[in-house]
Design brief:
Radius of gyration: 17 Å
Order of helices and strands: EEHEEHHEEEEHHEEHH
Number of strands: 10
Distance between the termini: 46 Å
Length: 224
Amino acid sequence: MTFSLVVRDGERFGIVASSSSPAVAARVAHLRPGVGAATSQNITDPTLGTSLLEELADHGDAERALAGVTGAARNAKSIAYRQLTVVGRSGPGFAYSGSHTLGTYASATAEGAVAGGNMLCGEHIPGVLLDAYSAATGELEERLVIALRAAVAAGGEEGPVHSAGLAVVADVDWRVTDLRVDWADDPVDRLAELLAVWLPQRDDYVRRGLDPAAAPSYGVPGDR
């Protein structure tokens, strides 16, 4: 149903995900500047992503954050249906897959990164995500999309995917990139097309948020 990659890149955190269900990024991707990033997927409970970030903000330990959320009494009745991943400001990523995770599921971790998925064509997919990301060059967003495309090429989910999303946080209090394809026959290719439009303008939009008087114009009629 979903496969995703969560990474730390210096001071930036990024998530890319795809799914057979609609609007995957709106439900599974959770990021906080200066704190970390997490996904909550497989019969998704978005509050678990928020809880992981709250734990990280409190103490900064990704492994402890995951243990705190999965072991919390309030989650005891449903945690077996969830799949979670999390990356903090230091150390490796961590993953949890409950006993009721759907279909073929797997996860893979590395320093500053974690990939996970369910309803996969095979257990190799998280490793493909990590390997492709590690081998890629370019901006963080570009490397995340390269990894997602590699996972699709390696088989991805058991069935066709219909949504994809990409989000990145950096040194401002909002997502510097937040791109979503909520329903399409080719969501990953569409996401790559969106990124090609967005990326050359990304930093200009940050400057507009920080200092509108000094920011570049939009280049549209009436703009100055």
